[in-house]
Amino acid sequence: MGGSSAATVAELGEFGLIEHFKALAGQTDAVLLGPGDDAAVVAAHDGRVAISADVLVEGVHFKGEWAAPEDIGHRAAAATLADLAAMGATATALVVSLIGPAGMSAQWALSLAQGLSEEAALVGASVVGGDLSRGRQVVIAVSGIGDLAGRPPVTRSGARPGDVAALAGRQGWAAAGLAVLSRGFRSPRAIVEAYRRPLPPYAAGPAAALAGATAMIDVSDGLLADAGHVADASGVTIDFDPAALPVPAELEAAAAAFNVDPLTWVLAGGDDHALLATFPPGTALPEGFAAVGRVEERGAGQAGVLVGGQRYTGDTGHEHFR
Amino acid sequence: MGGSSAATVAELGEFGLIEHFKALAGQTDAVLLGPGDDAAVVAAHDGRVAISADVLVEGVHFKGEWAAPEDIGHRAAAATLADLAAMGATATALVVSLIGPAGMSAQWALSLAQGLSEEAALVGASVVGGDLSRGRQVVIAVSGIGDLAGRPPVTRSGARPGDVAALAGRQGWAAAGLAVLSRGFRSPRAIVEAYRRPLPPYAAGPAAALAGATAMIDVSDGLLADAGHVADASGVTIDFDPAALPVPAELEAAAAAFNVDPLTWVLAGGDDHALLATFPPGTALPEGFAAVGRVEERGAGQAGVLVGGQRYTGDTGHEHFR
Lengths: 322, 322
Fold this sequence. Notes:
The structure is a homodimer. Chain A is α+β, with helices and mostly antiparallel strands. The first copy, chain A, has 2 domains: about 1-145, CATH 3.30.1330.10; about 165-305, PurM-like C-terminal domain (Phosphoribosyl-aminoimidazole Synthetase, Chain A, domain 2, Alpha-Beta Complex). Chain A contains 9 helices and 12 strands. Chain A has helices at about 10-25, 70-85, 105-120, 175-180, 190-195, 205-210, 225-235, 250-260, 260-270; strands at about 30-35, 40-45, 50-55, 90-100, 125-135, 140-145, 165-170, 215-220, 235-240, 275-280, 290-295, 305. In chain A, the strands form 3 sheets. A 6-stranded mixed beta sheet of chain A has the order 8-10-7-11-9-12. In chain A, strands 3-6-4-5 form a 4-stranded mixed beta sheet. Chain A has a two-stranded antiparallel sheet with strand order 1-2. Chain A starts with 8 loop residues before the first helix and ends in a 15-residue tail after the last strand. The model of chain A has no long low-confidence stretch (mean pLDDT about 90).
């Protein structure tokens, strides 16, 4: 990289930066034409692609002082990779648009790109292109495509009364990490790291599809909020069993220190990218999933989501425009 | 839409806005699963997709006072659709992330979405998903996928000495329109409209591929700058024939009024999304293309782009980070 480490993106220039990005991004066999042209070309083996988009905005989804650029890259990629996993797909490629001030350091941008590439590589996907622009605020817009391997996509609308609701991945950790950082702390480290770099259970998505999942969603807005999306799309009620949603000891400890209810993190926290899926009764749950509730018929006027048969009255998630 | 026309996006909420977007976006047969889930699913008939991304930033790529939201939507979609056309592909689907202040009017956002959908519909593509977030500045990040219909992609690297360089679409109009608007004028209308809403020659992309184009690029940064990308990727020199680059009368008139050289708009203006392609000598150029120069061997130290055998010494394009 030579002298680029001290340079700003403006000094290095759009095309200089793109050359560095190209060198960073390893390309898999699915990439038939990699970065550097007007478009990349990616294999779509079964004649379809799943496609999704997510955006991370500085000050809304991340703060530069709370996370290193590599971590922000990991998080930005994770959001889209988890969306694809939630359809039962395996991501094959990402395209990334990066907007930021002209004075942004080239090293920062390249570290971000490194994080994006590393997270994509976890599922065998490549960063195959993107765009760069200056702007007042750092914005990272990621789109991705994925391979359904011949299976139908697992939508939000297929949950049926009697199905088991099951969760894969950590839930509540990122919200706890955000709470820790918001109060000016940098530890416990495991919790802060969970906020900085989620660990979505990517393999559980295709595994759930193979096991016959009737519905699935990436838990990015909060467990209750995202369960509500499944419930509304499927016309059912999902009743969580509070005993099946144990609060990890690490979260209990942090919550006690801050005098908050850690169950709120588990029920309403976003950004861990757990997968919530429903399975026909009697299904042997795939590795990584644990039963957390049951799908029921939804009576007139009944809530889409219950906890232990009751409406939950706390915070149920966030919308990014509010 | 009821009362939403006076509402802000914050009042309508992310999910309310998404419901409106879904209603706006017509879906084609290629869309196997439309907006509203974690990802959409789109047909990729030949087992591959071309994929590209572009971003428009308020104050960098557009000013709200110079263009209606529909126009901005058309321009945002056009950038990605033209990238796909430049590979010889026909776009099938777009995903769009919209970032803006919480006080942005919902009607503005929906008009933008309308423009995006209308421009996509010109090539038979659909807006199949996206993301929404608040942010200080309006940012529109568009990614798109396209169908190569079994053909190899037309890259930037295949131009060979002896090839004919040919251009399809208008070139210089958007730069002239920007110059008019920048000086506080709102006419001539045809020029201002060209800036607000480009008319990329989408069909010329696949037609060029069918005709055997050896290289192709979407002219978004300027004719000389983008020709330079082809020349560098192909290891050749492209020599433009100035007599083959006539300046339209409308641009002559506007340039005379401002005392500028209109050839600068033609050679260095961006954002019209013309297509520059190279064809083997003797190729019957597809409809819409006109020969504008010749591809030559590139001697050591020789420039990649010449105009009438000479280096052009004016402005040759812009980089968005500078």
